[in-house]
Write a structure and sequence with these properties.
Layout (H helix, E strand, L loop, with lengths): L1 E7 L4 H13 L4 E8 L2 H14 L2 E5 L10 H9 L9 E4 L8 E6 L2 E6 L3 H7 L2 H11 L2
Helix pairs in contact: 1-4
């Protein structure tokens, strides 16, 4: 199985990509396409493209920003016009950092938002997240 990765206002992108690849390899998932965006509009376009291509998309970065460019606000605004409900969204705990991650699931499609710090990203790839991904995609 393959997934997409979108960097949004992210730093340490090569380190984050390496950390994510390591976590994904352990459950048999590879990266299909890696892109970057610097604006909410560009992120929306990349997300639509990615979800048209595959069912699992990771967004790294943007969680430390607030206001109209912050990832949580951008996703909240974008998802308000969809079938996604609060029950489809889950916060991912971050035991070693300040930003939470997010898991958004609708049917077989899943968006996982993680911080742009490799150590936090790896830590947040918890057994619960792995189990959710495995169960959703029968891995």
């Amino acid at each position: 199985m393959k997934c997409d990765l979108i960097f949004y206002l992210a730093r340490r992108t090569s380190y984050c990509e390496k950390a994510l690849k390591k976590q994904l390899a352990e459950i048999g998932i590879g990266l299909n396409e890696v892109t970057a965006s610097t604006t909410p509009v560009m992120l929306g376009e990349k997300l639509v493209d990615s979800l048209g291509r595959c069912n699992l998309v990771f967004i790294i970065g943007g969680l430390g920003f607030s206001g109209k460019n912050g990832l949580s606000d951008v996703l909240s605004k974008a998802l308000s016009a969809t079938r996604v409900t609060i029950a489809d969204t889950r916060k991912l705990r971050n035991e070693i950092g300040k930003q939470y991650g997010y898991l958004i699931r609708c049917g077989k499609q899943m968006i996982v938002a993680l911080p742009d710090k490799p150590d936090e990203l790896s830590e947040m790839f918890s057994p619960a997240l792995v189990s959710c991904i495995k169960d959703t995609y029968n891995l």
